[in-house]
Design goal:
The protein is built from 4 helices and no strands. It is mainly alpha-helical and 79 residues long. The protein is elongated and about 45 Å long.
């Protein structure tokens, strides 16, 4: 059976969620921003590593183009 990621509804029922929220509220805005930036950087790294596993033999220049094309698809055009 596939284990799907938790949804916001199931996360709120998790007793650890309340602890997480309490801890996050204690952080300064600068600390919360630093965490958000770290998560963003980690997500991008994970995305690129996933592509590397899918295309291990792609030359570096072509791989860079692939990454840029894929990231363009992820961009929120509502800004």
């Amino acid at each position: 059976m596939i284990a799907w990621p938790a949804t916001a509804k199931t996360m709120k029922n998790d007793p650890n969620h309340a602890v997480y929220i309490r801890l996050m509220r204690r952080l300064t805005p600068e600390q919360r921003l630093a965490i958000a930036l770290d998560l963003s950087e980690f997500s991008k790294w994970l995305f690129i590593e996933g592509l590397r596993k899918l295309y291990p033999d792609l030359p570096l220049a072509q791989f860079g183009q692939l990454v840029r094309r894929r990231l363009e698809k992820c961009h929120n055009r509502n800004y």
